[in-house]
Amino acid sequence: HRSSILTDTSEQGKNILPQIAHWIRRQDVPFREIAGVGLGVPGPVRPDGTVNRCVNLGWGVVPAAAELSRLLDGVPVRVANDANAAALGERWLGAGRNMDSLLLVTLGTGVGGGLVLHGEMMTGAHGSAGEIGHMTVNPGETQLCSCGKRGCLEQYASAGGIVRLAQAAGLRVESAKDVSDLAAWGNERAQGALKKAGRLLGLALSNAACLVDVDGILLGGGVAAAVVEAISHIDPDREVKIEYGDGLRECRRMLMMAKAGKRNGYLLEGMACPGGCVAGAGTITPVPVSYTHLT
Questions:
Q1: Given CA atoms 147, 229, 173, 139 in this order, what sign does their dihedral have?
Q2: Which sign does the torsion angle of CA 283, 284, 287, 289 carry?
């Protein structure tokens, strides 16, 4: 069963956990039959389930596991970063199920990352490992990211980032889908916004590939699908590949669209650095490669 509720981020997100608890109570399941509740949060999570600042929800330091458990009369609650949880799901049932090590990058409201090495989730000393969305990809950026830095990947490759790029080009758009649709219809300014997002995403992935030697990089989230689809429409005879510079042409890996919970996924050829290489500027761009449908 799947359902969704609007996230109330007013008043620093104080109503979010009560919202979730209320929704769970409305389900026709006795609490004694619930073994536990899992919660994915778009921010760093400590081992005890405390969220260590989640800007997209308006949270500072919130003991999310303890508080939600209290609201549910003591039902055990485990909290994880949402991209980390998605990475584990992809390794278990999705596109990464045959991979020992993988990096999942989620493109949606924000840009998240989950890193699995040798079958183990890497969360880091403070629960912040894999936060590729706040890797600096444009040191010359003047606008602040929600995290307080400037030039983060999230400012360009997230849904809001793509809208910002398109608006800066003079387009009246309200969503990343608007930009994707315009690009598919041949609007050059929309195509330019997506190409810039793709170029900076490629740069971030090329840097990540030099830091961690994984079996594959997975792209997930609605915005990822929109970017890949739009770039494919820009040149319908070509698929998408990640290119990391002349020095890495012999270092090949697979870049895949994440597919846990979906019927099908798409295999895209890519390139990465298995170690000891210095990557050139990365980009996501239409290039002639083979197309494979995953079943």
A1: positive
A2: positive
